[in-house]
Write a structure and sequence with these properties.
The structure is a single chain. The protein has twelve helices and nine strands. The protein is α/β, with parallel strands linked by helices. The chain has a nine-stranded mixed beta sheet, with helices on both faces. Helix 7 links the parallel strand 7 and strand 8. Bound molecules: adenosine-5'-triphosphate and magnesium ion. Adenosine-5'-triphosphate (ATP) binds next to helix 1 and helix 9.
Length: about 290
């Protein structure tokens, strides 16, 4: 049985793909078998890492044809243990297809627990930054959901209206099924030193402190050019920036991603602590 984590937000450009790609790379280097699934019809996760073997199919065959054979739909990346189902719904047919299918919202949940796909330790779902039936299917397929959010008032409002609103509706939808809506963690992304972003972060935490649907993670991602540069180089950030550059105050990219992964899952924390030192070393992990 895999741990299935959906990375989502009804707002675009908040860091979903960055988070998914970097978590996946880190967990693969920590020794897990990881599957990335690119559910965004604009396939940025699909092109983040170089591929070692390109499967003939991808998400379209998985969701439209219920194809779960690994050799048909799973590509391998050049990172050991990191596989990928690419986004290939080039005609944009999937949403309509799922809307017309009686099991549309529930299909992905069933497929990811079928056959060899269930053998992955971790499945990470990257999603589109707008509400859609594919996004709803990802929520219902996951054990845990992670929502990056940028520290500005508009993002906070959109999170409450869009993402929490969708979770409430899905909660009602699942009341009569065996599925349930996963717990949701909020990851502050692109924090900088300005007072405004610190204030928004603080007010988000107090605003949501009594909300049982969501936990604001203690660890956050700082605004770091290394995230962009690592993406451009097709590398996970823990390899790209394993240690803090001399004289910079902000922690190393490797420390940020490791701290978030450790906070998300205790099994991951144990494995990350034992990672070899070329990836930043165990001593860099903060809890
Ligand atoms: N902490 C960060 N510091 C600096 N740049 C970042 C950070 N997080 C993300 N970025 C950059 O912001 C841009 C948007 O990030 P990303 O593509 O991950 O967002 P997204 O939520 O997946 O967007 P979309 O909704 O379009 O899929 C990218 O260029 C990425 O490199
Ligand atoms: Mg994206």
């Amino acid at each position: 049985m895999s741990v299935i984590l959906a990375v989502l937000s009804t707002k675009g450009g908040v860091g979903k793909t960055t988070t998914t790609a970097n978590l996946g790379g880190l967990l693969a280097d920590a020794g897990f078998r990881v599957l990335l699934v690119d559910l965004d019809s604009q396939p940025s996760l699909s092109s983040y890492y170089s591929l070692a073997r390109e499967a003939p199919g991808g998400v379209y065959e998985l969701m439209a044809l219920s194809e779960t054979r690994l050799d048909r739909i799973v590509s391998t990346t050049t990172i050991d243990g990191l596989d990928l189902i690419v986004s290939n719904d080039y005609q944009g047919q999937l949403p309509q297809l799922l809307l017309n299918a009686p099991d549309g919202r529930f299909r992905l949940s069933h497929l990811l627990s079928t056959g060899s796909l269930a053998d992955y330790d971790v499945i990470l779902l990257d999603t589109q930054g707008a509400r859609s039936i594919t996004l709803e299917a990802a929520v219902l397929a996951s054990d845990q959901a992670l929502s990056p959010i940028t520290p500005d008032v508009l993002s906070a409002r959109e999170f409450v209206r869009g993402t929490l609103g969708m979770f409430d509706e899905l909660e009602r939808l699942t009341a009569y099924t065996s599925l349930s809506v996963p717990p949701l963690s909020l990851l502050l992304n692109r924090l900088d030193e300005t007072r405004n972003s610190q204030q928004v972060a603080q007010s988000l935490r107090s605003m949501l402190s009594n909300d049982i649907r969501v936990t604001v993670l203690n660890n956050a991602f700082r605004m770091l050019s290394a995230f962009k540069l690592a993406g451009a180089a097709g590398e996970p950030i823990h390899r790209y920036e394993p240690v803090k550059p001399y004289r910079r105050v902000t922690p190393a990219g490797a420390d940020l991603i490791k701290a978030v992964a450790c906070e998300l899952h205790s099994d991951w924390a144990d494995a990350i602590k034992e990672m070899p030192s070329q990836h930043g070393g165990a001593s860099d992990v903060r809890h």
